[in-house]
Amino acid sequence: MSTDALPPTHKALVQEVYGEPLIVKTVPTPQPPPGAAIIKILYAPIISYMRDVYNGKRKYPYLTPLVIGTSAIGRVAATGSDAVLLKEGDLVYFDCTIRGRDDSGAIILMGLSQGFGEGSKKLMEGEWRDCTFAEFAKVPLENLLQLDESRLCGSPADGGLGYAPEQLTWILQAMVPYGGLRSIGLQAGETIIVAPATGAFGSAAVVVALGMGARVIAMGRNSEALEQLKTLSPRVETVQITGDVQSEVASLKKFGRIDAFLDISPTEAQNSTHFKSAVLSLRHEGRVSMMGGLLDDFPIPYRFVMRSNITLKGTWMYTRADCQAFLGLMTTGVIDVRKLVQVVEMFKLEEWEKAFDMAAEHGRLGQIVMFAP
Ligand SMILES: NC(=O)c1ccc[n+]([C@@H]2O[C@H](COP(=O)([O-])OP(=O)(O)OC[C@H]3O[C@@H](n4cnc5c(N)ncnc54)[C@H](OP(=O)(O)O)[C@@H]3O)[C@@H](O)[C@H]2O)c1
């Protein structure tokens, strides 16, 4: 589809007023300026807690009116004049993490969060406001990852991996913990605690850490979900979050030397014991990746952290280099989730309420709910 073949209008899921119900609207289809592409959205995954983002409960900062959304799988429909690699028809993964071109510290999650500064707010106010819960989206060229479609989706008889394109939306769940795991330099052969490990991002973290060659101790409250994680590999151990730091530390320490800990707590885990237990179980020079969504400040075992030379590293999302490296793990088959990733259901934009409810109930290992606009 060239620029003159783009439809003049398309459908999009819009929030007019912060926290208020969404509406499907017909909106103008933009033309691609230099530096951008227009993608046709094929599959846009719904994050398990999106209902609580757009009803205001999670207090995400964003401007309205807004075409909401997140990262997605699409096809390039048209490119700006400066595109040198991407071409019409390419299967792409769009990464919603947008950075200021003149200030890489100004970051927004397109359709979701305006970030934390004046620069990022300006980004969301302007060019990169409207996201992927729509038939088309205008996105920065550098946020598109060209997918090797014949390798990823081709038939195994022809050297392909045989993924259904919609399964590739799992990249959204996996890229986030990959960013945190890379940020603390997780090495093959190391042991890492992932907690809580039973949600969508948490369970993806277990899969990714295994793919990076680590042994994983998965911590969580739900014993059934922990058992499911154990089936992934003999390199998965599990520890129940009991609310008692001493017993949690004792259970963790049974597994010997622990090198690292990825925390991916949701807002609701503000008072959970797992953070303290996991930190106290680390070896000298252990590393902690803090990726959780806690809204309030949080006590740390300061003396232990100081005495044990522990590194605490916060990470929001990931870098572009992480994206390419992760795609390499998927394309080479080092991380193989063909049997694991299950599309629970696909929805039309008009079905957004049902879709958000379904996503909230299916945030477990390998599960994905999505829009196919
Ligand atoms: N830093 C980043 O770039 C980044 C990016 C994306 C997401 N995040 C954050 O990651 C968080 C986790 O995402 P998620 O997909 O795993 O899903 P989620 O739906 O936000 O959280 C569900 C997970 O949290 C556990 N949980 C809920 N309440 C808890 C409590 N009171 N104590 C202990 N555990 C509790 C659940 O355990 P049960 O199974 O026992 O219910 C489940 O494992 C998100 O909330 C978000 O804030 C961060």
UniProtKB/TrEMBL annotation:
GO terms for molecular function: metal ion binding; oxidoreductase activity. Residues 34-147 form the Alcohol dehydrogenase-like N-terminal domain. Its cofactor is Zn(2+). Residues 202-330 form the Alcohol dehydrogenase-like C-terminal domain. It comes from the Eukaryota. Pfam families: ADH_N, ADH_zinc_N. InterPro entries: ADH-like_C, ADH-like_N, GroES-like_sf, NAD(P)-bd_dom_sf. Keywords: Metal-binding, Oxidoreductase, Zinc. This is Uncharacterized protein.
